[in-house]
Design brief:
binds acetyl coenzyme *A; 8-stranded parallel barrel; 4-stranded antiparallel β-sheet; leucine biosynthesis; binds 3-methyl-2-oxobutanoic acid; metal-binding; Double Stranded RNA Binding Domain; about 20% strand; TIM Barrel; 3 domains; alpha/beta; elongated; branched-chain amino acid biosynthesis; PYR_CT; 15 strands; single chain; 18 helices
Length: about 550
């Protein structure tokens, strides 16, 4: 990367300190949200949305709860124009939703914009012109005064057209390329526009300060916002709006620090679609507030359907690691994360079900329509006993003793490692059943009869390789008696060290599951499990399974 000297910082710091925002800790109330998916998002697509697709997306935005929606640039194309006409003529704009349209400061474009708005009950008309040093020098080739005049003339045209067009119109002005504009100049232009529009409490004006291209660290942007916000004319009747892009990957930080710096409103898109690296992702912003306990005023509780519509109509793909929405953002493959999540979920159930504080999961996946079963604990060679055991417990009601979880964990990791793939819960369950449960060859017990004779006496109908080995013995309990009988009759050496059992809680079954651990001839612990609707049979099967598996563990 030898060409770095080609670049220089192109932003402008405010002329005096503006950093009160630093002392604020978090965003304590939702801003006014404006979706620009149908305009900025749309103008960045390889194939812009069709009219039908825009209608479907509009309905989705309304459902999510947006009250301000930039529906397009009606002078740009027939589709943009017709889309706004369809919204108006088909009466598809709910009373509590305001549509917004974008226009350049050019008479024929403004005229066409107002023509498209005919019959619209209320709208925000959004005027922009670029004010940056680079655009003044290279694109418009005009000095500051002429650029300001362009804004002023545009503002006057909007005012005049609004006066003669029926409807309730509010105005928005963007000094486009704000981040490359001298801050005092941006302020001067914005104030000149405000002076023309004369905002009132009933008809406030929006001043939108876009990070058209992100050029600085987010704290610089925040300082610029605070400087301007403090000095705007009629500030009480002006909404300061932000429109961050994401060129440096810090669009969300721009928006958040900008809100701390005094902004009232955010323009952005779902999943951060938009020009180049995109507009700020409103889902991330809203969910960041949500997980600080602040109501964002937007509803993302059915993220999978939102994503489905978005991907279909934009032909974009939601990245697997996209905050709050990506397919993998709640997934834990690694053992220590899974273990902590499993323990955290149990802790929550037992101690504080009202609140969420589960390690590694900043929000409860079910709040955005994601499933614990499918989305959280996922098994591959990085996984551990905690997660694997938790998965079997949650999905199949298998609650192994801790030491057996370890044994099974290594078995599953090994399979995933050798096959080099993720294992699905059902496969894991099948391995568990195949490997441990009711392993009844070469030994099997077909019948047991217990009587009390100075201890528990067992008569065991034992078969080894299909040959009957009737056996009897006394023990301290039923399982001990059966175990002694098997040992005496077969000469197999082992020590029974662990026994647990539980009723199966998943599925419509009255089965019991029993687990037995024995120490084999090499001094290693070997596990077996037994499943049956009779608890004694389940426990005998668990013992026999462990005995039959004893040579599998070296
Ligand atoms: C940062 C943003 O996202 S801004 C929004 C950008 N979005 C879009 O541009 C999508 C929609 N745009 C379009 O469809 C077209 O550009 C139209 C219909 C608006 C205009 O089309 P055309 O006039 O054919 O072409 P074009 O956009 O190249 O016009 C450039 C001219 O407009 C001027 N211009 C550009 N922006 C503005 C503005 N905001 N206000 C006034 N004049 C402007 C340029 O200086 C240039 O002037 P010149 O003809 O004297 O050289
Ligand atoms: C029109 C303006 C707000 C814009 O889209 C931008 O600056 O990115």
């Amino acid at each position: 990367m030898k060409n770095y000297q080609k670049y220089q910082r192109g932003y402008f710091m405010p002329p005096c300190e503006s950093n009160r925002w630093v002392k604020k800790e978090y965003i304590d109330k939702a801003p006014v949200w404006c979706s620009v998916d149908l305009r900025d998002g749309n103008q960045a697509l390889i194939i812009p949305m069709s009219l039908e697709e825009k209608l479907e997306f509009f309905d989705l935005l309304v459902k999510v709860g947006f009250k301000e929606i930039e529906v397009g640039f009606p002078a740009a194309s027939d589709t943009e124009y017709e889309f706004l006409r369809a919204l108006i003529e088909q009466d598809r704009i709910p009373d509590d939703v305001t549509v917004q349209v974008l226009t350049q400061a050019r008479p024929h474009i403004i005229e066409k914009t107002f023509a498209a708005l005919e019959g619209c009950k209320s709208a925000v008309v959004h005027l922009y012109n670029s004010t940056s040093l680079a655009q003044r020098e290279q694109v418009f080739k005009k000095p500051m005064a002429e650029i300001k005049a362009l804004a002023v003339e545009g503002a006057e045209m909007l005012r005049d057209f609004a006066e003669k067009t029926p409807g309730n119109f509010r105005f928005e002005y963007s000094p486009e390329s704000f981040t490359g504009t001298e801050v005092e100049f941006a302020l001067d232009v914005c104030n000149a526009v405000i002076d023309i529009w004369k905002p009132t409490a009933e008809r406030p004006v929006i001043i939108n300060l876009p990070a058209t291209v992100e050029m600085s660290l987010p704290h610089v942007y925040a300082s610029q916002i605070e400087y301007i916000s403090d000095r705007l004319h009629c500030r009480g009747n002006v909404q300061v709006s932000l429109h961050p892009h994401n060129d440096r990957g810090t669009g969300v930080a721009d928006a958040e620090l900008g809100l701390l710096a005094g902004a009232d409103r955010i323009e952005g898109t779902l999943f951060g679609n938009g020009e180049r690296t995109g507009n700020v992702d409103i889902i991330t912003l809203a969910m960041n507030m949500y997980c600080h306990g602040v109501d964002p005023g937007l509803d993302f509780s059915d993220m999978p359907s939102i994503q489905e519509v978005y991907e279909r109509v934009t032909r974009m793909h939601v990245y697997e690691r996209q905050p709050y929405a990506g397919a993998l953002v709640f997934a834990a493959f690694s053992g220590s994360h899974q273990d902590a999540i499993a323990k955290g979920m149990h802790y929550r159930e037992d101690h504080d079900p009202e609140h969420w504080n589960v390690p590694y999961l900043p929000i409860d996946p079910s709040d955005v329509g994601r499933m614990y079963e499918a989305d959280v604990i996922r098994i591959n060679s990085q996984s551990g006993k905690g997660g694997i055991g938790y998965l079997l417990e949650q999905q199949f009601g298998i609650d192994m003793p801790p030491k057996m979880r370890e044994d099974f964990g290594y078995l599953i990791k090994g399979i995933s490692d050798h096959e080099h793939r993720e294992l699905q819960p059902k496969e894991i369950y099948e391995v568990f059943c195949r490997e441990y449960v009711n392993v009844l060859e070469p030994c099997r017990v077909d019948s047991v009869k217990f009587t009390e004779r100075g201890g528990m006496f067992a008569e065991v109908g034992l078969k080894v390789n299909g040959v009957s080995h009737p056996a009897t013995a006394v023990g301290t309990g039923r399982l001990d008696a059966v175990s002694n009988a098997i040992k005496d009759s077969t000469g197999i050496h082992y020590t029974l060290v662990n026994y647990t059992e539980h009723a199966m809680t998943k599925g419509s079954t009255s089965d019991a599951m029993a687990y037995v651990g024995i120490i084999n001839g090499s001094g290693k612990i070997v596990w077996g499990a037994g499943r049956h609707n009779d608890i004694i049979t389940a426990s005998v099967n668990a013992l026999v399974s462990a005995i039959n598996r004893r040579d599998r563990v070296e």
